[in-house]
Amino acid sequence: MDEIIKQIHKELKKNIDIAYKQTESRLFKEGRNCYGVRTGIVRGIGKKFLKQLKNKSKNDIFALCEELLSSGLHEPRTIAFQWANQLRGEFSLEEFSIFELWLEKYVHDWSGCDDLCCGALGELIVQYPLLIQKITQWTTSANKWLRRAAAVSLIPSVRKRNCLKEIFLVADKLLLDKEDLVQKGYGWMLKEASTQWPREVFRYTMLQKGIMSRTALRYAIEKMPLMWRKKVMES
Questions:
Q1: pTM beyond 0.85
Q2: 146 and which of 38, 93, 141, 186 could share a cystine (Cβ 3.0–4.6 Å)?
Q3: DSSP H or E run through 215
């Protein structure tokens, strides 16, 4: 293990909060393998040690991210995804296969999925919109985190106002998904889209409300005007 990785683990262990760890464990039905360090502290540690990597290449830093991820612990994963996002100015198409592998191999809960998707992966898709074709294929994956990622990784693009057609395509493909966390994922995507394209998303929810799960529907309409929300929720 690289010396800097050892130092990170040592720093994390010094900041364990047992009460926080117990609270975190109750939030995740999949369970959570973690030290029990508060997120703000974890990100501070990540920022501190990233400064020591100024002379490292992108490939060197990604190799260190892999070491962090291989621990299987939540906090090193958070730092790995944080570092990856800090490299967004150097992204190329090659990073897609790395992030896809990370989703498949190291993501086992919604927070890890969202951390990567709303950070490094989402930024990569903003830079290379053609990758939307690839993430759309995840909607049929047996891996629920890839299915959730198909929606959540579009949220940074939503905020750039450049993917309405693709949003509805992904929503269509996930419409009948039985997994609660996938429903919440595409509902969240639609909610974010509703701030950019309110009428279009309202029309979509009106059209699909008989099919869409109530969970996804409630997420999707959360930011709509009250009268619209009432209209959508009418049986």
A1: yes
A2: 141
A3: helix 214-220
Q: Which long-range contacts (CB under 8 A, 24 or more apart) does 90-98 make?
A: 90/58, 91/120, 91/123, 91/124, 91/127, 91/128, 93/128, 93/131, 95/120, 95/124, 96/124, 96/128, 96/131, 96/134, 98/62
User: What residue type is assigned to position 143 of the chain?
Assistant: N
Give the number of C-alpha atoms closer than 13 A to the C-alpha of residue 175, restricted to the C-beta side: 14
Burial 22-41 (b: 16+ CB within 10 A, else e): eebeeebeeebebbbbeeeb
Which of 176, 131, 178 lies closest to 150, judged by CA? 131
* 139: Cα separation from own chain's centroid: 15
Q: What are phi and psi of 87, to 5 degrees?
A: -95, 10
pLDDT digits (tens, 9 = 90+) for 61-101: 999 999 999 999 999 999 999 999 999 999 999 999 999 99
C-alpha–C-alpha distance, residues 116 and 166, integer Å: 20
Angle, CA of 155, 159 and 161, to the nearest 5°: 110
Quick one: tokens of 183? 């429903």
CA 184/CA 92 separation, integer angstroms: 30
